[in-house]
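Appendix B, Record 12. Input sequence as logged:
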Amino acid sequence: MPEQPSEPFDVVIIGGGAAGLTCAIYAGRARWNAVVVEKMMPGGQVALNDVIENYPGFPKGISGLELAQAMHRQAERFGARIKTGEASGVSPKPPFRVQVSGEDVRARSVLLATG
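Logged structural output:
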């Protein structure tokens, strides 16, 4: 597993569903230090589907859980940190402070991918 980046992060991504994990993959490829905040589990709602038949690249479909796990692994492979907890507030000026289950997470930017 890659070394965890120190704060402040380049980006805090609020929402760890398909959109948030995709953002984390691209941020990692751009060599940004990224942290994804998800209140449930990485993959979000997609993980609750038995089969997803309309996702590109899977002509026979894929289980939601499999897709969520693959996206989670790929985001971590590119260096994203996954933090489980609920984001409850964002300060209005950089460096931004995002409250995650009572803890401050600092970042240069905040991206909302809450579905």
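The beta strands are 11-14, 34-38, 81-84, 87-90, 96-100, 103-107, 110-112.
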